[in-house]
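Example 3.2
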Amino acid sequence: MKKKMRRRLGLVCAMVMILTSVVGASAEEVDTTVDDNNVVVLAAAGGENDTMADNIVWKYKTINGKTYKRRWNNTKQVWVDPSWILVG
């Protein structure tokens, strides 16, 4: 009788551990906005588990037909890259 209870309890615990460890895969949404300086901001929608990470986004701008990009830290409100990078 004790063996059956232990076996059932072990099975139930194993099932609970498996079910709670399954992570559903989903496509991230990408938010595209344009700020006041005509800089395009591409930001992936953050999930529930990345609250401790900095939110880094790419910002794009076009000057004289040339496109530049630069990373911006939304969390700390500072530039990650020291200068704009020419894209094309």
